[in-house]
Amino acid sequence: MAIATFDVEFTKDGSVFDGAQLTALTAGLGPFSDLLVLSHGWNNDMAEATCLYDDLLGNADRLLRLREQDVVPETLCAFTDRLRGRTFAALRIYWPSKKFADADLIPGGGAATAKAEKDNFDAVRRVLDELKVDPQRLGDRAVDPIRHAAMEQAKALLPNLATAAAQREFVDLLRRMLDPAAAEQDDASEDFLSAAPETLFANAAMPVTAPGGGVNGGNAGISDGTATGLLGDLLSGVQAAARRIANYATYYEMKARAGAVGGTGVADVLRQVRQHKPSLRLHLVGHSFGGRLVTAAANALPSNTAAVSMSLLQAAFSHNGLSGGFGDPPRKKGFFRAIVDEQRISGPIIITHTKNDKAVGVAYPLASRIAGQNAAALGDQNDPYGGMGRNGAQHTDEADNVATLGLPGTSYAFKPGRIHNISSDVITGHSDVTRIEVAYALLSAAGAVT
Q: Is-above-0.85 flag for pTM?
């Protein structure tokens, strides 16, 4: 493979787990002009993350090898010319993510099972059991004893959740596990931590309609595996509310962890990398919650950082995250707006987004419901709590919506300092981000960094 790889593993607080990995990275940068900085999303173990990296880098390697051919298709000449003479390495980040709102929340993902669970709390118990796990490293399944005790208390409350007292205690047990410093306006997490528990239950008890435009169009049903199916969101009542609140706590924890690992650990590694080789071009590439991780790392870079691009592949954070102003007056800036205002990313930022991404469609209808939004369809570009991987960057003047994800040879007009929303309906689902079209787009963005 033409792309050399370096692995660095981070613990949940953003510390480098093995300093020898960082030493190998900084010592090995000499031959390279460009470093791809890759972050997985909500994978469960090393094998899944490594498979994602291998597949994506394999396609990138195929494209870079076109430079060695005597004859290159005319549509690829500009691409190969821009990258000629450049040598690529990849930093593969491993961090302790875990699955959020996966299909196993309803075994089989079908309407029959959802109906069977409608009158009990089995699904809520599974989510609460998952919340007992607090991995220090990727793949760690150790149960934290304090969290175990708290979630057992929460499970004991389930039969009485129709009462205000039980609702207050249930919400309080979940909130105690969460870092309040990670709360923000973009995703309703401030509401989640501050609203009265009875209000949270009332909001979360209402059925959620998935955004239209999925594989079956319109208001998707439980059986199609959409966000509606994954969360049982056609259901209502106290069971559905408890399930959504517990799922939102899982989302909150993962987004906080991605921010901590990116904003502290990865950002520090990037500073050390640049100290060892100031001329090295950096290309941040994040999938899912890894998109939030690399964005948090970019947010920690100095103003006017030269020679950096960023590719967000079905990113799991707010579509207002880069916005210069959203919401009712006084309009708010996105959580990561400083990246744009202070040019912490000097090169292009590209964002793949598609209505086919049902996983990003899980968290953001939840956020809307937590905040008490009551729309006909939640999670699309008009939802104040929509997701980046579903809709691209919204309310962001620097963003354009011109590009469509295409095969190698597609002509992209990626420009430094611009945000490019890439309509990516060729992507079939949340994790379908290793395909050659994606590799070509991110290398095209890298080629725009001189």
A: yes
